[in-house]
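Class, look over these structure tokens:
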Amino acid sequence: MPQIQLTPAERREHRANAHHLDPVVLVGGDGLTPAVQKEIDAALNAHGLIKVRVFGDDRAARELMYQQLTADLNAAPIQHIGKLLVLWRPQPAKERTIDEDRMPGPRDVKVLKYSKRAGQRPEVKQLRVLGNQRLTPGGQIKRAKKPKLKSVKKRQAD
């Protein structure tokens, strides 16, 4: 697989985004085994931008490992500084299935609660409204109204 080529500006942006990341995969004394390579591939699929820590002291071996990872996993080399390797690969698009029977999930709503005393500031509250609940104009959470059931005789008349 060919290695991904990035412009210096793209590489700089990815380096900045990777600054706060912790290493996701640690390469031990056995070096780059197929199991480690599989974990790095899974981390690239999940995160896109990852750091790998190599515990070997040989810089040439780390550089060779870095080049082998970028070539085998079709990843872009972002940075090799000390024992840290930074790799990037675009994340694959996730397939989502739409389920019509699914109810809406919880949503967070900000509500203003006014004080009964004049001149007081209203208090902002963050409330979580579940799928089977509704928010009243007064800022309270109540169960959603169910459709009113008709009697058997009225249903037959319709």
In short: The chain is about 30% helix and 25% strand. The radius of gyration is 28 Å.
